[in-house]
Structure formats: C-alpha cells, structure tokens
Amino acid sequence: MRKISSLVLAAILGLTAVVQADRPNDLVKSIPNCGDSLPTKWYSGYLDVSETKSLHYVFVTSASDQAATDPVVVWFNGGPGCSSLLALFAEHGPYVFDDGEFVIKQNPEPWNKRANVLYIESPAGVGYSYAKTDEDTQHNDLSSSMDSFEAIKIFFTDFKEYLKNPLFISGESYAGIYVPYLSWQIHQYNLQADWSNDETITKYNLKGFIVGNGATDWDLDIYPAYPEVLYNFNMIDKDLLANFKQSDCHYYFNDVKKYPNKPECAAMWKTIQDARGNLNWYDLFRTEVPKGPILQAVNREGSVMIDGVEKTYTRGFTMQEYTPWAKHLLTDTPHVLGQSLSDYVNSQGLRDAFHIPSNLKGWNQCANGNSFTYHYQYEGSVWIYPILKAYNYQILVFSGDTDGAVPTLGTRRWIQNQNWEITKPWRPWVTDQQTSGYIIDYDNVKFATIHGAGHLAPQWKRKEANKLFTSFIHGEDIV
Fold first, then answer.
1. pLDDT over 80 (residue 393)
2. To 5 degrees, how large is the angle CA 368–CA 317–CA 28?
3. Which stretch is the leader sequence (predicted)?
4. Which structural domain, as residue segments, surrounds residue 151?
5. pTM for this structure?
6. Residue 400 to residues 98, 285, 431: CA-CA distances in angstroms?
7. 306 and 389 housed in the same domain
C-alpha cells in the first residue's frame, strides 16, 4: 500500500497511459460458496488516500465481450456510514443474499453485465476501510468527496487500461450527496487540467453520474415530503395533513435545519411518524420483516477467529441502526435483518479472499458513533446539478416510488424547482412488456421512477433497475 502525490500521479498517468498495470496482488481468485473461480476478474485491496487513511475497494470487471471498453462505474452506499459491500452482496453484485434468505446465490441481473463496477467503502472508518487517527474518522460532505477523488486517482494509476473508458459515479440514499460532490470534484480537476495547458496532467473521462433515491435538497427531501407521502399512501387523514400545514410545521433530516415550530406541531409530528406502524420505512408496500426465520435483537455479537485472534462484530442491523438519525424508528420491533451477510463478510474465507489485513477489526454494515463521525452540511447537493448540467454531463436520477425514507415526491419537487426545459415528456418505460416506471427528460438530465419498489430498488426490482442502469450508461434509449 502506498500514497502517490497528485503531481507524481499526473506525470505517471500522462506518460504511461498505454501501459497496462493492474494490481496482481489484489486479484480475487474465488469467494466462499461461489465455486472455485469467478466468472470475471475481481480485485480487492486498499487505496491509500493519505498516510493515515485507506479506503477498501472491490473492482468487478465486466462480463461482456466489450469489457475492455465498457464504462467504469463507481458505486457508493449511503448512510452516511454504510458499506458499499451491501450493494455488492445484496443489490447488484454477481452473487447476492436476498431478504429472508441465508445462502448466497448467483444474481441473474448483476450490474457488471456490461459495466466494470468499482465498489468503494467510504469514508474511512466504514466497513473494512480504516483510519489510523481519530481525526481521520471525522468527515463531512466536502472532505469525503476529496478522499474519494484521491481513491479514484490511485485506482486509475494502477488500472491504466481503463483510463479512457467512460466514467460514471453512482450511488443511493445519502450517496445523493456523495455522488454529485465527487462528480463536481472530478469536473473541477479536469477544468484546471484544461486551463493549465499541461499535457502531462491526466484528465478523467467523466461522462456523468447516477443517483438512486438520493438525498439532495434538505428543504424538500426526506422529512419535508414525508407527511404528504403518508397521506398519498392513505396512512394519515386529510385533516391531520391540513392542520400540520396550516400550523406551519417543518421538520428536517437529522435536524440539519432548525425551524421555530409551534407547540402543537410536536404532537402532530409524532402522530405522523407513528402512522408507519410496522411497515417497512424503506418500502411502504413491504412489511418490515421478510419471510423466514428472523434474528431477534438480543445476543447479536458475532465472532470469528482470524489468524488465532478473535474478531467481534454486530450481526445484521435493526431499522434503528440502519438509520440512526430517524428518531421515529427508535421504538421499532427488535427484528434484525442481514445477519447472514454480516457472517459472510466477516468470515475468514471472505477476508482472505479480499486481502483484508488480519489486524483489522470485524466488519459492520454501517459504522457507529464509536468509530465514525459525520458532520452534515447545510446546502445538500442540489447546487451542483445546474453546474454539471451546463457542462452537458449525462445525469440519471431514479426513484423507487414506494420509498418512505427518501420519497419520490421530494425528488420530483426539487427537480421541478430547477425549471429545466422538458425535452421528452413524462412517459412509461417497459421491461418484458410490463410498465417498469415512468421517465422524463430535461435534455441531458433524466428522472425515472421504478414502480413498486422502495429505497433499495436495485435489489427489489433487479431486472428493471439493471435495464435502466445499463441503457443509461451506454446511451441507449430507455423505452
């Protein structure tokens, strides 16, 4: 592992772009319970973004005949503080665990069908990414994007053969902040490279970005949209919604903004929050507990022996742990989801396959306050869209339309507030002769819904989400 300065990196990339130089020591030969070999090349290792911070990555190469030229897509999960291995092993990787199941299986709709997908556990302190100082586990939207960009620079140093491939940044949930910020960082770097007239400085072939059910505008996303969403889902009555609005009540994600609410607002807000019952906040058409045996939130400490040393970890997650800022989830039933995934990623076999140092602690799906602190920024990421749209980057915003956490309603509102010209009107798009959702074009920005899926649309509507994703990155019509 090493850190390469930006100037040295630029010189190396500029002078030796034609030389193939991947990371042979990071090659993953196989993973547990998935056969003796992998269908395409996987790599796993570390990108040292500073002398004290290292981000863990897994690079899954494309399965298509055009793998050498297929786009490189960088993926981030949200949280903030949740591991991108959740997406790799539950949403759109080649092998996945499904809800309520305890055996990993082949995914018929992996996103690497026609893409080279780079999963990064970010920021430092999340998953198997690590920091050597307490200061390095303190993050915000800007610092996180700077570290992620350093990781991408180092990645393309060692995987030069992909440098000319189209590059897309992608993610879901709080990655609605991560993804535009990182795209903006790359854009700014490329502009400076152009202005310098220094041909030894390498530019990155950023073509656009993808955000799924992403937090973007704190004035409209998440809590500001939630009361009206519940009314539209027939979960609260019109009088409650009308009184809430008439009393000028406003609540925001994780109290990122403060509002002088009247005393009567608190009781109405609690009624609205309690209306969810035991439905799944991430999909209001889905129960919180899937079919099959479910672990209760007791005796959840898992352990594994790694080179003779016991490593402990928390098995699975409750709704509260997955979204600690959502105060209304604090009284949830104590069901635990994802315990099989936790056991798998913490196993000696997977750690060895992914070249995880034996001295690192156990892996948790989302970082807790003991190892990770995130400072939210007031402005969200909505300010970035007009900038990158003006430079003609291709942008896809998609939304599973039964999500209660980052509802489609809030996304539609912040997009409508941009007053962009509609170039293709609202229309259905189809998979296997069945309507998959609806899509609208604002020139180089597309907004699409995935019908009947919630926050984790790539997991719960795999075929439809893969069609949307693959068509977009290859510039194909989404019909």
1. yes
2. 85
3. 1-21
4. 1-235+279-478
5. 0.92
6. 18, 11, 15
7. yes
